[in-house]
Amino acid sequence: xxxEIVTPDAKVFASEVRLVQVPGTDGSFEILxxxxxxxxxxxxxxxxxxxxxxxEHFFEIEKGxxxxxxxxxxxxxxxx
Length: 80
Description:
Elements lengths: L1 E5 L4 E14 L2 E6 L5 E5 L2 E7 L4 E6 L2 E6 L2 E6 L3
Parallel strand pairs: 1-8
Antiparallel strand pairs: 1-2, 2-3, 2-5, 4-7, 5-6, 7-8
């Protein structure tokens, strides 16, 4: 899967990943390969990413939006 985390100021992260865990407005959820298409709002919190080499990355975000479609994930956050 390909993940991009973008703020109004910069592209914070762009890479192939195995797992993404996000702070959804209605609760935390995870995205794995071949996840169904989804658009959801995000609240302030931590985004956990596990990359292709099984390394964990954490990003503190302000509220935002996530879109998942065909193994492409875009997180648009106010701040990260």
